Amino acid sequence: MEWLGDVTGLACSLFFVWYGVRATAASYFAGSLSIKTLIFPEWWMLAPTPMCFLLVAVEFIFRMRLLAQAEREPRADAVSAS
After folding, report:
1. Can you tell me the distance from the alpha carbon of 80 to that of 61, in angstroms, rounded to the nearest whole number?
2. Which end of the chain has the least Cβ crowding within 10 Å, N or C?
Protein backbone atom coordinates (compact mmCIF):
# COMPACT_ATOMS: atom_id res chain seq x y z
CA MET A 1 0.00 0.00 0.00
CA GLU A 2 2.88 2.34 0.71
CA TRP A 3 4.27 1.74 -2.78
CA LEU A 4 0.85 2.39 -4.27
CA GLY A 5 0.53 5.63 -2.30
CA ASP A 6 4.01 6.79 -3.29
CA VAL A 7 3.58 5.99 -6.98
CA THR A 8 0.17 7.67 -7.03
CA GLY A 9 1.57 10.71 -5.23
CA LEU A 10 4.50 10.91 -7.66
CA ALA A 11 2.17 10.67 -10.67
CA CYS A 12 -0.11 13.39 -9.28
CA SER A 13 2.83 15.64 -8.47
CA LEU A 14 4.28 15.26 -11.96
CA PHE A 15 0.85 16.00 -13.45
CA PHE A 16 0.67 19.24 -11.46
CA VAL A 17 4.21 20.15 -12.57
CA TRP A 18 3.14 19.70 -16.19
CA TYR A 19 -0.13 21.58 -15.65
CA GLY A 20 1.62 24.38 -13.76
CA VAL A 21 4.20 24.84 -16.50
CA ARG A 22 1.43 25.01 -19.12
CA ALA A 23 -0.64 27.50 -17.09
CA THR A 24 2.40 29.68 -16.35
CA ALA A 25 3.53 29.65 -19.99
CA ALA A 26 0.01 30.45 -21.23
CA SER A 27 -0.23 33.38 -18.82
CA TYR A 28 3.22 34.64 -19.83
CA PHE A 29 2.57 34.48 -23.57
CA ALA A 30 -0.90 36.02 -23.21
CA GLY A 31 0.55 38.90 -21.23
CA SER A 32 -2.09 38.49 -18.51
CA LEU A 33 -2.00 40.95 -15.64
CA SER A 34 -3.24 40.70 -12.08
CA ILE A 35 -4.95 43.96 -11.27
CA LYS A 36 -5.58 44.34 -7.55
CA THR A 37 -3.79 46.82 -5.30
CA LEU A 38 -0.61 46.18 -7.29
CA ILE A 39 -0.43 45.45 -10.98
CA PHE A 40 2.01 42.74 -12.03
CA PRO A 41 2.18 39.85 -14.50
CA GLU A 42 -0.05 36.94 -13.56
CA TRP A 43 2.65 34.39 -14.34
CA TRP A 44 4.61 35.66 -11.33
CA MET A 45 1.92 34.13 -9.12
CA LEU A 46 1.79 30.92 -11.15
CA ALA A 47 5.55 30.32 -11.45
CA PRO A 48 6.05 28.78 -7.96
CA THR A 49 3.42 26.09 -8.61
CA PRO A 50 5.48 23.79 -10.87
CA MET A 51 8.59 24.34 -8.76
CA CYS A 52 6.78 23.36 -5.55
CA PHE A 53 5.19 20.27 -7.07
CA LEU A 54 8.57 19.28 -8.50
CA LEU A 55 9.92 19.34 -4.94
CA VAL A 56 7.00 17.17 -3.82
CA ALA A 57 7.77 14.72 -6.66
CA VAL A 58 11.42 14.57 -5.54
CA GLU A 59 10.23 13.81 -2.00
CA PHE A 60 8.18 10.87 -3.32
CA ILE A 61 11.26 9.60 -5.16
CA PHE A 62 13.25 9.76 -1.90
CA ARG A 63 10.45 7.90 -0.09
CA MET A 64 10.38 5.16 -2.73
CA ARG A 65 14.18 4.86 -2.64
CA LEU A 66 14.13 4.36 1.12
CA LEU A 67 11.26 1.90 0.81
CA ALA A 68 13.15 -0.11 -1.80
CA GLN A 69 16.27 -0.29 0.39
CA ALA A 70 14.43 -1.16 3.60
CA GLU A 71 13.87 -4.64 4.95
CA ARG A 72 10.48 -6.18 4.25
CA GLU A 73 8.94 -5.78 7.70
CA PRO A 74 6.68 -3.30 9.45
CA ARG A 75 8.52 -0.06 10.18
CA ALA A 76 8.97 0.99 13.80
CA ASP A 77 7.24 4.32 13.10
CA ALA A 78 4.28 2.59 11.46
CA VAL A 79 3.44 0.21 14.31
CA SER A 80 1.34 1.33 17.24
CA ALA A 81 2.46 0.60 20.79
CA SER A 82 -0.91 -0.81 21.85
Report:
1. 26
2. C
